[in-house]
């Protein structure tokens, strides 16, 4: 769905009105359209120039990203990466100001800022914990300052996981993360601290099989297209009324499809049989299917409560357990749940939906610990306001508030969710597990 206000804010009259009245000014975001991951130079810095700084340099080189550790006056940078893992104690935090203050004016529009720290819960020194936890406040505040479609994100490492940072840096520095800002990602938190080398930057999922539920339209369709773009053989699943759309999409992408209701008792076995028969296993499982049945709790029916919860989290849990029981999720595979900002911050009239989506987070974080020994990861994408067909049913005032109440003053696109899913699915993201990534332009109220 188009954003007419955004277009208005960028014409000559609109610019004048927006500037003088202090209205939201949603920038046009750069999204990935092929080619190099980063079109421009990335400036790197480090508090100590230790092993993490060296791993960053190696990762950027491997991804063919132009990077330098020497700042030049007057040069514009597409990205800034700062290794803050060596900062300890309150006094040490000045290293953030010393690196960023001189260079922030040199950050290009739609620029990227990434700060790297150590997971506070993995540290024993009180001074270390103070400094590393402070990075969250720093990055989330800076994300609200940078403007121009730029983003700021924080990557926490467990010690020893620095060599698993490559795909995460590539995602956060590239246009693939256009609508992701103010987020915190942990690498190595489930004990997986290494990631295999990815042979192709353009096709990291070559030879992999991906299953997407709710695949025929909207977010699911974007997931299918993006995973196929990255080289995966895709399997789409959707309900019988959408079979024609599902079949056409699967055939276009050279993949397969399953028609059925994921809440049906036989669904887990049917899906497992399809995967086993056609592919022998699956590498990426995306539980995208979901519905809303919005009512305030005093008007909620048991049927609408249970249906929403079962589609969002009950059925995905049963399907995943069946695939795991039959050893059909390959080593190095990943399970991705779709939550929502509603599951983090809550939403009026959505007690069923918010409960379901919060349940997705709890389930996936528990699953991540359970499957780590098998080299399988599990993560959550939590979208905010997305420009899908569903928003047409939202009253205009609420719709506009949903669009503007984030640091980028606009709604996201289905591809923004799909790019996050593709990053989680990338074999190079093997150390990324148990995370909840908000794809929401950094919501200003309720949750980041």
Automatic annotation (TrEMBL):
InterPro entries: KR_dom, NAD(P)-bd_dom_sf, Sc_DH/Rdtase_CS, SDR, SDR_fam. SUPFAM superfamilies: NAD(P)-binding Rossmann-fold domains (SSF51735). It comes from the Bacteria. Pfam families: adh_short_C2 (PF13561). SMART domains: PKS_KR (SM00822). PROSITE patterns: ADH_SHORT. Residues 208-384 form the Ketoreductase domain. Belongs to the short-chain dehydrogenases/reductases (SDR) family. This is 3-oxoacyl-ACP reductase.
């Amino acid at each position: 769905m188009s954003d007419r206000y955004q277009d208005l804010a960028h014409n000559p009259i609109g610019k004048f009105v927006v500037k003088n009245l202090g209205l939201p000014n949603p920038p046009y975001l750069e999204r990935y359209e092929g080619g190099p991951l980063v079109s421009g130079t990335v400036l790197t810095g480090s508090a100590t120039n230790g092993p993490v700084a060296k791993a960053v340099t190696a990762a950027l080189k491997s991804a063919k990203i132009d990077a330098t550790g020497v700042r030049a006056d007057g040069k514009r940078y597409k990205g800034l990466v700062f290794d803050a893992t060596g900062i300890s104690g309150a006094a040490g935090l000045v290293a953030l100001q010393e690196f960023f203050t001189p260079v922030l004016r040199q950050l290009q529009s739609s620029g990227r800022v990434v700060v790297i720290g150590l997971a506070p819960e993995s540290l024993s020194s009180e001074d270390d914990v103070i400094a590393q936890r402070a990075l969250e406040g720093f990055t989330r505040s800076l994300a609200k300052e940078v403007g121009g479609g730029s983003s700021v994100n924080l990557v926490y490492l467990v010690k020893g996981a620095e060599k698993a940072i490559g795909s995460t840096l590539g995602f956060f520095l590239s246009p693939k993360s256009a609508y992701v800002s103010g987020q915190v990602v942990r690498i190595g938190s489930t004990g997986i601290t290494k990631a295999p080398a990815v042979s192709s930057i353009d096709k990291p999922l070559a030879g992999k099989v991906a299953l997407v539920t709710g695949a025929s339209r909207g977010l699911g369709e974007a997931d299918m297209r993006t995973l196929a773009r990255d080289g995966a053989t895709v399997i789409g699943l959707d309900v019988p009324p959408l079979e024609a759309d599902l079949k056409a999409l699967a055939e276009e992408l050279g993949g397969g499809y399953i028609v059925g209701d994921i809440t049906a008792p036989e669904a887990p076995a049917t899906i497992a049989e399809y995967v086993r028969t056609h592919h022998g296993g699956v590498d990426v499982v995306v539980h995208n299917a979901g519905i809303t049945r919005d009512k305030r709790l005093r008007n909620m029916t048991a049927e609408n409560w249970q249906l929403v919860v079962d589609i969002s989290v009950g059925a995905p849990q049963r399907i995943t357990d069946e695939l795991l029981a039959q050893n059909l999720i390959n080593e190095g595979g990943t399970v991705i749940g779709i939550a929502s900002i509603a599951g983090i911050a809550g939403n009026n009239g959505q007690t069923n939906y918010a409960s379901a989506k919060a349940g997705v987070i709890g389930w996936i974080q528990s699953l991540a610990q359970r499957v780590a020994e098998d080299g399988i990861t599990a993560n959550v994408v939590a979208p905010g306001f997305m420009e899908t067909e569903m928003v047409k049913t939202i009253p205009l005032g609420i719709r506009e508030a949903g669009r503007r109440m984030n640091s980028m003053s606009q709604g996201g696109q289905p591809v923004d969710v799909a790019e996050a899913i593709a990053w989680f699915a990338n074999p190079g993201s093997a150390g990324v597990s148990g995370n909840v990534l908000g794809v929401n332009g950094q919501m200003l109220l309720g949750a980041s």
